[in-house]
Every structure is written in structure tokens, then in C-alpha cells.
Amino acid sequence: MSLALLEPVKSVLVVTAHPDDVDFGVAGSIAAWRRQGTEVAYCIVTDGDAGGFDPNIPRSEIPMIRRREQQAAAKAVGVDTVEFLGFHDGSLEVSMRLRHDITAMIRRFQPERVLCQSPTRNYARIGSSHPDHLAAGEAALCAVYPDARNPFTHQDLLAKGLEAHTVLDVALMAYPDPTHYVDVTDTFDAKIEAIEQHKSQLPDPAGMRDMVRGWLAAGAETAGLNDGRLAELFFLVKTA
Prior knowledge:
The protein is 40% helix and 19% strand. The chain has helices at 21-35, 62-76, 96-109, 131-148, 155-159, 188-196, 205-223, and strands spanning 4-5, 11-16, 39-46, 81-87, 113-117, 169-173, 180-183, 231-238. It is α/β, with parallel strands linked by helices. The chain has one domain: LmbE-like (Rossmann fold, 3-Layer(aba) Sandwich). GO terms for molecular function: hydrolase activity, acting on carbon-nitrogen (but not peptide) bonds, in linear amides. It is an enzyme of class 3 (hydrolase). Its EC number is 3.5.1.115.
């Protein structure tokens, strides 16, 4: 059975655990939506300090390197707003502090859609189900419902002028049973350009392009598209 097209909306907030998650996961869709006028902001939850592959780079330098890489990657797909929450990589938990900080981003940006990682483990693609991904996805969903829409939750935000906001839907990436797709054939090169900015994470940059194309070709097949097309897949949750 073919999947439904995920239509663009006026504004999207992307919440991911690590720098580079958005680019490997959904940068093709972001590039396509930006070309259609969608406003997009990124909320990166951790500082990425457990990432990288080169032991010669001091670990203390990794967070700043990864911030710069993510900002450059965002530019490659037309995104200017990138916020970093600064939680530690590798030890993320669904805390009230994390829900609070994501809620603040939702209320500040007031997106129609939140795009985040799946809190459901995908056993067919275990790499997409890093514990930080699961925690970031669960916290983002909690922030969407009920936190961001409830004016009596996180009342310090209301005191700062961040009014309650209701998100219309949430698109989950890497969900085991997707319902929607975005055709990213025409934005594949932009996605690759974004991924290439994460040099600290790419021990085999030459092989990365073929690997990512293979993922997206499989996504297009799942979506029921013709041969030669590429697609990113989502599970859509109506939240309003």
C-alpha cells in the first residue's frame, strides 16, 4: 500500500537529539519545504560531545565544532534559526527540564508542525533508535501535548511572555511503520551538502552519498513511487 504525501505547512520546528540528526534524517524534506516558503527552525537538544571519530581532537572542542557544523548544514538547506539546548550527548533523559526547554522553543517559534525523532524503537534500523533519539522524541511529544498548549504548565514561560501554543501535527522520523512521505529527489544534492558539513562525523565521506541514496531509494519504494525517485518517510500524529 502506498503512503500519503506529507504536505508542507507554514512553519515547522525540528527537534533532534544531536547535531547531524536532522540532516541524515530529513534535510531533503526541509530543503523542499523551504523552497515552497515554509518557515523552519531547528532545536538541537545535546551538544554532541560524545560524537566524532578522531582521537586527536580534544573532547573539549567537540561541542563547538559540532555547533558550527550544524549551523553550516542548516544554511545548506535554507534554514537560519538553529537553537542548541546544551544537554550532554549520550545521557539524555525525558526530564521536566528537557520538556520545559522544548516547550519554550515551541511557544517562541509557534510552529504549525513539530518534526522530531520517534520515541518508538525501530528494530529494523537500530541506528536510528539511539537512546538519545528516543528520549528527545518522547520529550518533544510531551512538550507538544500537553505542555506547550497548557498555560498552567511551566508558568515561568508565561511570565516571560511565552504564551500557550497548540501544534497542529507532529511528524516522526524513523518510525517503524510510516504513514507519509516527502519526495526528495530534487533536493537530494542539498541534503548531501548539508550532511557533508558534519566533517567531524564522517570517517568515510566518499561512501556516505551511496549509503544515503540507498536509504532514500528504499523509502521511495515503500512510498509506492516510481523507480529512480527518492523519499523520506514519516509517521504523522494529529495533535489538534
